[in-house]
Design brief:
InterPro entries: Ammonium/urea_transptr, Ammonium_transpt, Ammonium_transpt_CS, NH4_transpt_AmtB-like_dom. It is a single chain. The protein has 19 helices and eight strands. It is mainly alpha-helical and 487 residues long. A hairpin with a 2-residue loop joins strand 3 and strand 4. Helix 9 packs antiparallel against helix 10, helix 9 runs parallel beside helix 11 and helix 11 runs parallel beside helix 14. The chain is globular, with a radius of gyration of 23 Å.
Amino acid sequence: MSVPSAYNNTGGVTPDWLNKGDNAWQLTAGTLVGLQSVPGLVILYGSIVKKKWAVNSAFMAFYAFAAVLLCWVVWGYKMSFGDKLLPFWGKGGPVLSHTLLLNQAILPATVHYHSDGTLETGALAPLYPLATMVYFQFVFAAITVILLAGSLLGRMNFRAWMLFVPLWLTFSYTVGAFSLWGGGFLFQWGVIDYSGGYVIHLSSGVGGFVAAFWVGPRLNRDRERFPPNNVLLMLAGAGLLWLGWAGFNGGDPYSANIDAALAVLNTNVCAATSLLMWTIMDVMVFGKPSVIGAVQGMITGLVVITPAAGVVECWAAIVMGVCAGSIPWFTMMVVHKRWSLLQRVDDTLGVFHTHAVAGLLGGLLVGLFAEPTLCNYFLSVTGEQGGFYGGVGGIQFGKQLAGAFFIIGWNVVVTSIILIVIQFVVPLRMTQELLVVGDDAAHGEEAYALWGDGEKYDMTKHGNADFDDMTSFHGVDIRSRGPTVSL
């Protein structure tokens, strides 16, 4: 076997095309995104729910991370970034051989026309092996499914979740990824999704809302009172999510270049602006700054900048942050309470607002603020520009809107079909008995030993009151005073 290579001073094979700096950054960026899920969202989910659901919620995220990885290397990556099967779908297949090391990663990069009017999609060849790209794209696929899980916490049958993860990855995520990133029809049309506003956040928000409809609601007492079991630990998970976003958006130029630097800066600027805006809205309307509200604002800021991070100027990131901290706030705090459909569907962490609404908002705003020079730095959208910059820029907004309609429509239909099929195999929802008890009944484990040295709550010793429903403990008022938990 002949491989173009040189030998370094340690005796290892170094292909001529390898750029060690780009490879190191891409692996680092991928690991940062992975840390957003494990342990970031594992900690956040396990802390923000009622204590009886801490183990189940954290384990849903942990399981999804592992299941997605296996599916990704066996068939998912090629369905997202392989040869075209349909205009919106790639051909599946494994990426498991030594070619992961020896083959340079190849991705679609530019769109232009032949003289006869037919489309040609150019190729981008990052300066690192295919193994690096497979890993980097895996962590995006994993966090999408984990974000969707936020809509289903506190009642979904874990066996149904075990089936749902590979099916939704296969029939939903890969379609969005190929259509927008892998050379599919939305990519060729020039729809901009820098790092997943549509592929990840709009799809997880819509998919989660639809799944919540089919799975059904939590117990009434859980919907009415669902206090976080550990607010400080929740902030630790949120912090991992925020800082991990440097890899989320900074890795998508596929190189350690100047566009990556701008993407990281814009990401943090927008997140900070949105957090402050959400907090201001809480103070103005409710009279108190909410810690949970601040986390919500942080997340919506990160989501809104995601489809635009490397193609907008820093002033636009601030404007987008103001929108991120106010528009999803309005849909969550005002529209949600007045729209019967939103009231009827039990979206546990409000993923519809923080990801679907915010992802759609970010996708539309990039259609206004995408700066022409910056678009040329990001090879996947060379030649595009937002409506704010005049010329043909107004067309971009229409493209962004059409792309959103496709992602929304596909997820509504496919998520529904998947869950209808699963319910013929296993129930989608836990039994009433499991819902009353929570983790101990579902997994035989509890998150906290609350009574002495590992002792569990025993009604024969401590009384028959449900601690979750008590209003005081040892004379201290423990009733939740904050807003309903939504992330």
